[in-house]
Amino acid sequence: MSSFRWFRRSRRDDLSDEIQSHIDEKTDELVARGMSPAEAEREALRAFGNVTRVREAAVDVWRFESLLESVTTDVRYALRGLVQKPGFAIAVILTLALGVGANAVVFALVNAVVLRPLPYPDSDRIISISQRGHEGPDGGVLNELPYADWSQTTRSVESQSAYDPGQAVLQTPRGPARIPGVSTTPAYFGIFRVKPLLGRTFDES
Amino acid sequence: MAQPKPRDLFPGALEMMVLRLLQNERLHGYALVQRIRQVSNELLQVEEGSLYPALQRLLKAKLLQAEWGVSATNRRVRIYRITPAGRKHLAAEVSSYEQMLKGISLVLTFGEAP
């Protein structure tokens, strides 16, 4: 359907014609020298060699250029189609845009949550442990007694800390501000190796 | 008398001869084959088919141009004509061929009495 094919066939047809003329002329010449027509044709074909192979070799000389031309004609054909059917074009472009957009969003999420390591030193050695009830993990809660027991007895971790996220409201001259925070045990800062911008962190005392 | 076994031409030889013959006149494929045979005193018998890929290579390199015409025997044939680029290419090819020939004959006559 592409003009590429038409183009190649026409070049091949040209060569077929040219080769046929060649063989006819040779046959005529041999007949003029006294051969019988059948014999002359056989001899002309023999002298020429393999017609198909010659023709294909001659067409193949152009192959790379034809490939290039075929790509440009195909692109032009596609663009023309899009211009002629704008409704279809818009539907296709929207579909592609939504597909690409959705993929980008999902990848951004997966990248942030799963693929990218946590922004702390040795983040592959930080684990999170939570209690699991009959209905699945219950949001990370260990109450105080099990935590004390666990931290006394476990030897699997270097350091451990419990935390409880929360928030406070600070009344400022410009209105109330919400301060997200976490109440935690002192080892927390060592595990994540974070330092406060001002002052110091609290310790066991 | 034993006929010496005909040997293949080196790559590019056929193209060079085609360009040289077309320098004097416009010819179609079969006429080129005949000319090569006549002009070489029948020493060279090109395999007739091999002419056509060679012609296509020369066309692609824009060393030749072709147009459809009618042969002396009244057949529709493609008639080839050399381009200015073809003439330039031929001159370069011939001079490099002569260099090679000179080199080969020097080696082949090495040590013989001058």
Structural class by secondary-structure content of chain B: alpha+beta
In spatial order, strands of the major sheet of chain B run: 1-3-2
Overall tally of structural domains of chain A = 2
Helix content of chain B: 40-55%
Strand content of chain B: 5-15%
Instruction: Based on Cα principal axes, name the global outline of chain B.
Output: globular
Distance between the termini of chain A: 84 Å
Per DSSP, the total helix count of chain B is 4
What's the number of helices of chain A? 7
Kindly report the average pLDDT value of chain A: 81
Q: Describe the largest sheet of chain B.
A: 3 strands, antiparallel
Quick structural gist:
The complex is a heterodimer of chains A (205) and B (114). With 205 residues, chain A is mostly helical.
Task: Write a structural description.
- The complex is a heterodimer of chains A (205) and B (114).
- With 205 residues, chain A is mainly α.
- Chain A has two domains: 3-84; 123-192, no CATH class.
- Chain A is built from seven helices and four strands, in the order αααααββαββα.
- Chain A has helices at residues 3-32, 37-48, 51-60, 63-84, 86-115, 144-153, 187-192; strands at residues 132-133, 136-137, 163-172, 175-184.
- In chain A, helix 1 (3-32) crosses helix 3 (51-60) and helix 1 (3-32) runs antiparallel to helix 4 (63-84).
- The longest helix of chain A has 30 residues, at 3-32.
- Chain A starts with a helix and ends in a 13-residue tail after the last helix.
- Chain B contains four helices and three strands; from the N terminus they run αβααββα.
- With 114 residues, chain B is of the alpha+beta class.
- Chain B has helices at 13-24, 29-39, 51-60, 84-108; strands spanning 27-28, 64-70, 76-82.
- At the A-B interface, helix 1 and helix 3 of A face helix 2, helix 3 and strand 3 of B.
